[in-house]
Write a structure and sequence with these properties.
By secondary structure, this protein is mainly α. The chain has six helices and no strands. α1 packs antiparallel against α2, α3 packs antiparallel against α4 and α4 packs antiparallel against α5. The radius of gyration is 20 Å and the shape is flat.
């Protein structure tokens, strides 16, 4: 088995494991609802889809052996990757998760977008500020405004008054 196939199998196992955890957690959502599709239908569907796509990646890893033999010297997986950037992305995700808990969705999305732009090389202050603000406003409008999702308050500070400027009904 070549290097690319081993990487693909690792990705497949990871995706299927994360999907299984999501499925278990989604199954714990109370299904009681007056709607035709209850509140856990979409999370369970997405978790099952994630596990299915992970299995597809695993199956394709066995079928792609001959196709990647000539590509073996290429840069696949983590062999020549920028590990510091990978760790920075994980750190940005952890900071975004903490800010989501502490201050709510809007602030977390603005800070998370700013951090990801920084990690991937954007250094212009105007681009960082305006892109992060635009992303936060768009995410807030789509998820809380159009989709009607709950706008959670932060555990340490409640900044929902800011998000109500974007989505008055939330």
């Amino acid at each position: 088995m070549n290097y690319r196939s081993r990487i693909d199998l690792g990705v497949a196992a990871t995706v299927m494991t994360v999907g299984a955890v999501f499925a278990v957690e989604a199954w714990r959502i109370d299904p009681a609802s007056y709607e035709a599709i209850g509140p856990r239908a979409v999370p369970v569907f997405l978790a099952c889809l994630m596990m299915g796509l992970g299995a597809l990646i695993g199956v394709s890893a066995f079928g792609s052996r001959q196709q990647t033999e000539q590509l073996e010297p290429a840069d696949f997986g983590f062999r020549n990757s920028d590990v510091s950037r990978v760790l920075a992305v994980i750190g940005a995700g952890a900071v975004t998760t903490f800010v989501f808990w502490a201050a709510g969705y809007l602030v977390a999305m603005i800070l998370g977008t700013l951090l990801m732009l920084w990690v991937f090389g954007v250094r212009s202050p105007l681009v960082l500020i305006f892109a992060a603000l635009a992303a936060g406003v768009v995410y807030q409008f789509v998820f809380m405004g159009l989709m009607g999702l709950l706008d959670p308050r932060g555990a340490l500070i409640d900044l929902r008054w800011l998000s109500r400027l974007i989505t008055p009904g939330s």
